[in-house]
Design a protein that fits this description.
about 450 residues; alpha/beta; Rossmann fold; pyruvate-formate lyase- activating enzyme; OB fold (Dihydrolipoamide Acetyltransferase, E2P); about 35% helix; globular; binds 5'-deoxyadenosine; binds iron/sulfur cluster
């Protein structure tokens, strides 16, 4: 009998990407095999994101286009999951306007997918299964990981911070830490399978451990992971500046496997806006933190997230953000146009910034950031860096790409069989987003 095939389209953050790796594992256990494209598959899953409006609109656009596919192949199963489905409003839109969707599930019940598929097959009726809160962490799902040498590992779920612009606390629920033993067992297994690099994932990893019923911090978790034989690099994201402790900075400096890289979202350089965002730190606090970190780990690379056009952002506030990024000298940054998310506090704020102003500021922010990235990359010229080789470049099959411990993307010539190995590369060219060199 011909094997059934599946296709997963993922939107949003690394946590969603990792959830899709879990979904893929569940489906392959059901004997589904991965299809190259939607057109050829028997099951299509959209793993959705709600953080910004454009991600949401893309999903509706894509779902609309699937109507035809379903008409041609009525046996096709279409499922939608992820953060969008955690809101009643989005579920109702799907149920009323996208009737060709067969299964709706959420972020807290991924493990039930096989059951939901069977229920749909038996009844032929739309299946909706959502758990509002992450009651218990389900530990028996593995992942079909994209790479065989680097892996995402969840350490906590949810967020308690309620930044006023952000929908995540409403979709992913309250913060919950995984048991350290489960995390360590998972990483030991990964190490035995040959994985060299792991990225620990959570909305706010610095507050890891708070929901355990004994005292255990993120810094302690790093110490325990650092002992695992075979693992060579440890990364983590995301850190919240208000929770980044001195203990953590010390441990980052001391542990050999923890990479010299920190993603520390600042969001804005204006104290007035930071307060209105409920970020609970000032630009002075943030700067002090960066100074401490750079002192402890001089070659660390720092990246950030910045939102442009938060309600009430004046030209003066925005200029403070521009000033701030020049002062910090970020290695890279994710920049976002503020997007109104219904249900958040900021959505109800007055003085929403007009789109034209947001776009104009956004461009000015990029024009400020790119030369800074370039300047930071110039520091790598003629240096030799350790690179974990990741893949063949999409634009040139003679060229490989990989990353340094500091997270820099490196291009160099080499043979495909180096993928998954560590090599030393001497840097000869610097650009804003990549460095080029040759293996030595
Ligand atoms: N509009 C724009 N950007 C947002 N982010 C979160 N919510 C919004 C929003 N409503 C950004 C923040 C966060 C990143 C993951 O997404 O910068 O750090
Ligand atoms: Fe959203 Fe703030 Fe939580 Fe990050 S820390 S997920 S921005 S509420």
């Amino acid at each position: 009998m011909k094997k059934k095939t599946y296709f997963i389209q993922t939107y949003g953050c690394q946590m969603n990407e990792h959830d899709s790796e879990k979904i893929s594992w569940l489906l392959e256990n059901m004997k589904y095999i991965k299809a190259d494209n939607k057109e050829k598959s028997d099951l299509i899953i959209y793993n959705t994101c709600l953080v910004r409006e454009n991600a949401e609109l893309k999903v509706y656009g894509q779902l609309g286009a699937l109507k035809n596919l379903k008409r041609k192949n009525p046996k096709l199963i279409i499922a939608v999951c992820g953060c969008m489905m955690q809101t009643e409003k989005a579920r109702n839109v799907i149920l009323s306007k996208y009737k060709h969707v067969d299964i709706i599930f959420g972020t807290n019940n991924i493990h039930k997918l096989p059951q939901l598929i069977n229920r749909y097959k038996q009844t032929g009726k739309t299946v909706v299964d959502i758990e509002e809160e992450n009651q218990e962490i389900v530990e028996n799902i593995e992942s079909n990981r994209k790479y065989s040498f680097k892996a995402f590992v969840d350490i906590m779920y949810g967020c308690n911070n309620f930044c006023t612009y952000c929908i995540v606390p409403y979709t992913r629920g309250r913060e919950k830490s995984r048991d350290p033993k489960d995390i360590i067992d998972e990483i030991k297994k990964l190490a035995q399978a040959g994985y060299k690099e792991i990225t620990l994932l959570g909305q706010n990893v610095n507050s890891y451990g708070k929901t355990l019923n004994y005292s255990y911090t993120f810094a302690q978790l790093l110490k325990d992971i650092n002992k695992i034989k075979g693992i060579e690099r440890i990364r983590f994201m995301t850190s919240h500046p208000k929770d980044l402790s001195d203990e953590l900075i010390e441990v980052m400096a001391e542990l050999d496997k923890v990479c010299e890289q920190l993603h520390l979202p600042v969001q804005s350089g204006s104290n007035r806006i930071l307060k209105s965002m409920n970020r609970k730190y000032t630009r002075e606090d943030y700067l002090q933190l960066i100074n401490k970190i750079k002192k402890a780990i001089p070659n660390i690379s720092i990246s950030t997230d910045i939102i442009v056009g938060f309600p009430g952002e004046t030209e003066e506030d925005f200029n403070e953000t521009l000033d701030f990024v020049k002062q910090i000298k970020y290695d890279s940054a994710f920049t976002f146009l503020y997007s109104t998310r219904k249900g958040t506090i900021a959505a109800k704020m007055e003085n929403q910034v007009p789109d034209t102003v947001k776009h104009e500021r956004f461009q000015r922010l990029l024009d400020t950031l790119y030369p800074i990235f370039y300047e930071e990359n110039l520091k790598y010229l003629n240096k030799t860096v350790e690179v974990l080789v990741e893949e063949v470049s999409k634009n040139n099959e003679d060229v490989l790409t990989g990353r340094t411990r500091t997270g820099k993307l490196i291009h160099f010539k080499g043979d495909e069989n180096l993928i998954g190995k560590m090599v030393n590369v001497k840097i000869k060219t610097a650009k804003s987003f990549t460095l080029e060199g040759y293996i030595i």
